[in-house]
User: What shape does this take?
Amino acid sequence: MRIAIILQQGFAFDPDRPDSVESVVRAMVANSRYRETTTIVCDPLLETEPAGNEGFKVLRLPSFSGSRQRQRAIEAALGRLRPDYVEVHQDIKTADYLARRMPDTATVIYRHNEDKPQSNFYRRWLYVRRLAAPDALICVSEFIRQTYLTNNPRLDPHSFVATNGLQPENWQAAPDGRREKLIVFTGRPHPDKGIAQLVDALAMVLPEFPDWRAALLCGQWQKHCRMYDDFPVRAVEQKVKGKDRIELIRDAPIAEVRKTLQSAAIAVVPSIMADPFPLAAVEAHFTGTALISSGSGGLRELSGPGAAYLDAVTPQAIADTLRGLMCDPEKRLALARKGQQYVLEHHTAKKAAQRLDAIRDRIVADRAKRS
Assistant: This one.
């Protein structure tokens, strides 16, 4: 099967500072039995092609200011590639465009975020129409799939779940009692990620534990500064300012995230938003770090029994849960082992890619029956 994977505008498949969507695509392609016949279509990089992309077929589009220009360029590229299956990540408009322009090719919209209500009847009608054009909808968790079915029940027979996965050999470290007394947050510096509540909680507990410290490894810092006119990322800076045992690391490269998690005792994913299936939690589990989770969205689906779940995303609730793990190394170690075992059983990249390949096979077979 010839596969074309379309990344949304602004994504350049950078192996050093990847977005979570790019990390998922990379792991899935690397472990797919269709790796040799898969092409990733994405935006240009400012530098030369990085060494980390060796072994991947990458087709880079020119830079475009408008989405319609980009859609036409993708259509032209696909005309040359002649794929059997087109997988469009996140971009519903482009999936709709390609499905209508290439009716003989199986086209899928792959969503990493929940469905959101539209502001008026016309927008809702247009949105539903666009979602219905591709052959299928793939979601990263059952929680996400259900948000789409709530508003679009007719999608049910054509919707699938392909959970994210990571390659254990890149992340796995043994949970043991020699971990540094370090609390880690990894992710975007967005208020919905609960970072402000975490900083307030750390300000409460760290004075009680003078041998502990915290690190906030925030990805896509500059991107979020541009997107939100410096707010709310600057608010995070202000909260951390003057707190000598809370380190803020901006635009942390993936290698630093991995190394820090492998040495840390506790990771916190305090998402306020209905987090779909965050890689930050998967990474923490694989590295053998005890995880505190809000359990929102797809987080319970992701971690199963392997996380300590918050009753609420408040500074007090986070502080209380942190104290419980900081005071009890045996409890911390047992939780870390349980979380790692769970992701090894359910969320390796190999198993995730096998599930996704089976979904792709079914979609293409169903399309062939209708032709």
